[in-house]
Specification:
Layout lengths: L14 E3 L3 E3 L15 E5 L9 H9 L3 E3 L25 H13 L4 E5 H6 L2 H4 L8 E2 L5 E2 L1 H13 L5 E8 L13 H11 L10 H6 L19 H24 L5 E7 L10 H10 L5 E4 L4 H13 L5 E8 L15 H11 L2 E3 L5 E7 L7 H17 L3 E7 L5 H11 L7 E3 L7 H18 L4 H35 L14 H24 L2 E6 L2 E5 L3 E7 L9 E6 L7
Parallel strand pairs: 3-4, 3-5, 5-8, 8-9, 9-10, 11-12, 11-13, 13-14, 14-15
Antiparallel strand pairs: 1-2, 6-7, 16-17, 18-19
Length: 576
């Protein structure tokens, strides 16, 4: 196997400034949207990086301008954290509704809207709201949640030029730890109770809710057997039924060709759990342009990719699917509800991909090793396949679904033996339920753009920002620094899942993490700066990566799970 092409020692030395990030002496550009780009009005699920900054990068990579409300309007705050401007811990439903009205008045015709945010103030609060709560608009009008939804659907549905992606979720098995009164013990116990198999029932929301508490034999599932109090269970079930009823109402209210629905399955189980009948019900109500897929934190990416494919009249493509590790016929984690190869097949169908043995687009998927003694063989096969594909001028998507099974060896080989910047897309150590959607959304849409001849300096920089963001976060923060930072927080007497419970010096935590980033990020950025990337597939053409700069490090959810920064890149260079 050849080593990484390019001589890393020729790269300019990275400069580090703790308050700003990792700088590049190569020129970078603070990208502004080009004129007359198609605009997408986007109501995010919440303010985590996947749903906010990373979506801006992806929109740029596909030649869109993403319009978003002020972050405070869709932010989520965990216990004891500073409240939003609306005085709450969740998004401002009234303000978001009015923002959407303004976008329509200003002529926008593309929308991606998370129902959980619009109706519940975000994903986390949708799992916690146990009662319907009226919405008060700025003019004093009071609307129920369904009236608010009716108004938005009527407004956006009245313009036949609109294309509206409505994103919704199947509520996960247990609520969010650290929000309201929910503890880790609550999460563990409620999830165990919810995993008990349920019996099939009539496909109505009322019948589904009526069967929440009985098992496959029709017998009552005692919460006490799982350490769940009646009070806790009651609140959980009320929240679950509210969510089910709102989702059902939305599906039954849609008319015309303007709307597309994408539903995501969150934190599930192989068992015929409490989600089973909900999933079957939603599938029975979806239309021709709709889908229900595994994953939630990747849903915005999937909707954006699907919108782009529709906008360019994509006719689908052949793709080669290569597994390494021999575990593709099992769920990638305990939170998936189906085997990895089945989840990939669902996503292939959604994006119009037909699996074949030889194609220009290759998905290389590394699974956990079925045989622990063959780890090195699996890795060798994976990296050989990637190198062969590069030599054959093929587009490669790399998906690490191994759940950390290969440890430091995988990280080292990615950095040392792989031209990371030539990958069309990559996804690795984030929630495994979302890996497939992340990898395919970016990979399929980038491939389609390269085949369609639509790459520009603007879209190239968007692609490079996407790649630098995910690779640095995955290979530096998620696989190494996150655990170190969590331990640093514990040593301070704090809680890695919430820096305000109890409150600690977050600046000290940030300084620690940035110092570690100084040590680890340069090797990933060096790899990228010495890489070439595919800028056309018709005909096949490459260009060189330019400068990369990371700035504005932050823990925007005040916990160690997410770590964010801004990525600036320069224009393409001559081949390296």
């Amino acid at each position: 196997m050849r080593k990484l092409r390019g001589v890393l020692s020729l790269l300019l030395v990275l400069l580090f400034v703790c308050s700003c990030g990792i700088e590049s002496s190569e020129p970078v550009i603070e990208t502004e949207p080009e004129e007359n780009l198609p605009k997408i009005a986007y109501v995010p699920l919440d303010d985590r990086p996947n749903n906010a900054r990373c979506m801006e990068y992806m929109a740029q990579s596909l030649g869109y301008e993403l319009l978003m409300p002020d972050a405070d309007l869709y932010a989520t705050r965990l216990n004891n954290q500073p409240l939003n401007a609306n005085g709450s811990t969740c998004g401002d439903r009234a303000a978001l509704c009015e923002w959407l009205v303004r976008q329509e008045e200003e002529g926008c015709d593309r929308y991606i809207i998370f129902a959980d945010q619009l109706l519940s103030g975000g994903l986390v609060s949708s799992r916690d709201m146990s009662e319907n709560e009226p919405v008060t608009l700025s003019d004093g009008r009071v609307m129920t949640e369904t009236e608010l939804l009716d108004g938005i659907l009527a407004l956006l549905g009245s313009d036949s030029k609109n294309k509206v992606f409505l994103l919704d979720t199947v509520m996960r098995l247990a609520p969010t730890v650290g929000y309201d009164k929910w503890t880790m013990e609550d999460y563990t116990n409620v999830r165990a109770w919810a995993c008990v198999p349920r019996a099939e029932c009539e496909m109505t929301p009322e019948a589904i809710a009526a069967g929440y508490c009985t098992d496959a034999k029709g017998e009552y599932i005692s919460p006490e057997d799982y350490g769940v109090s009646e009070e806790t269970l009651s609140k959980y079930l009320q929240s679950r039924e509210r969510k089910l009823q709102l989702s059902s109402y939305m599906l039954e209210s849609l008319e015309g060709d303007v709307f597309r629905v994408l539903m995501g399955i969150d934190d599930s189980s192989e068992e015929s759990c409490i989600q089973k009948n909900e999933i079957e019900y939603f599938e029975s109500r979806l239309g021709e342009n709709d889908a229900l897929l595994s994953g939630v934190d990747d849903m915005a990416y999937k909707a954006l990719a699907k919108m782009y494919l529709e906008d360019i009249a994509w006719q689908g493509s052949e793709a080669q699917l290569c597994f390494f590790g021999d575990n593709e016929d099992r769920p990638a984690s305990a939170y998936d509800f189906r085997a990895l190869n089945e989840i990939l097949a669902d996503h292939f169908e959604y994006f119009g991909l037909k699996e074949t043995e030889d194609a220009e687009l290759i998905f290389a998927v590394l699974t956990a090793p079925r045989d622990e003694g063959k780890k090195s063989e699996y890795l060798d096969a994976c990296f050989d396949a990637i190198e062969d594909a590069f030599e054959d001028n093929k587009a490669v998507v790399l998906m690490d679904a191994s759940n950390g099974a290969y440890g430091e060896e995988l990280r080292d080989r990615l950095i040392e033996d792989t031209e990371l910047g030539k990958l069309v897309s990559y996804a690795g150590t984030l929630d495994l339920a979302n890996l497939t959607g992340v990898a395919l959304s970016h990979g399929v849409s980038r491939y389609a753009l390269l085949k369609n001849g639509g790459d520009t300096e603007y879209t190239q920089r968007g692609y490079e920002r996407c790649m630098a963001d995910v690779l640095v976060k995955d290979l530096c923060y998620r696989t190494v620094i996150r655990a170190e930072t969590a331990q640093y927080v514990r040593d301070m007497g704090g809680n890695p899942d919430n820096f305000y419970d109890p409150e600690i010096d977050e600046n000290a935590v940030l300084d620690f993490t940035v110092q570690r980033m100084e040590e680890l990020a340069p090797e990933v950025l060096d790899n990228l700066r010495s890489s070439n990337f595919i800028c056309s597939l018709a005909p096949y053409t490459e260009a060189g990566w330019g400068g990369i700069e990371l700035t504005d490090y932050c823990f925007n959810w005040h916990r160690t799970f997410e770590f964010d920064f801004n990525v600036y890149v320069g224009n393409a260079t001559d081949l390296h």
